[in-house]
């Protein structure tokens, strides 16, 4: 079904009694172009929105946003993860 964000968005629509039609999962720049052309709306992570501009697209922060995103710490070895983990986890 895709990432956690997509699942949360679909769940929100369903809870509101709406049945969204999700047709595409494409790179962010393509999503912006499709949205600018009038092919629906797009949800993107805030970190992406902060670094993007697109003529014909309006960015809006979602109030009371229930969507949370999981992130992971990656390293080449378990010993590096353990060393870093002592300081950030």
From TrEMBL:
This is DNA-binding transcriptional LysR family regulator. Residues 2-79 form the LysR substrate-binding domain. InterPro entries: LysR_subst-bd (IPR005119). It comes from the Bacteria. Gene3D superfamilies: Periplasmic binding protein-like II. It comes from [Anoxybacillus] calidus. GO terms for molecular function: DNA binding. Keywords: DNA-binding.
């Amino acid at each position: 079904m895709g990432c956690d964000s997509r699942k949360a968005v679909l769940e929100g629509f369903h809870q509101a009694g709406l049945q969204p039609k999700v047709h595409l999962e494409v790179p962010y720049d393509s999503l912006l172009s499709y949205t600018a052309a009038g092919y629906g709306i797009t949800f993107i992570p805030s970190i992406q929105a902060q670094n993007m501009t697109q003529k014909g697209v309006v960015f809006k922060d979602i109030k009371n946003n229930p969507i949370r995103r999981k992130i992971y710490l990656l390293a080449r070895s378990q010993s590096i993860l353990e060393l870093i983990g002592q300081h950030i986890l």
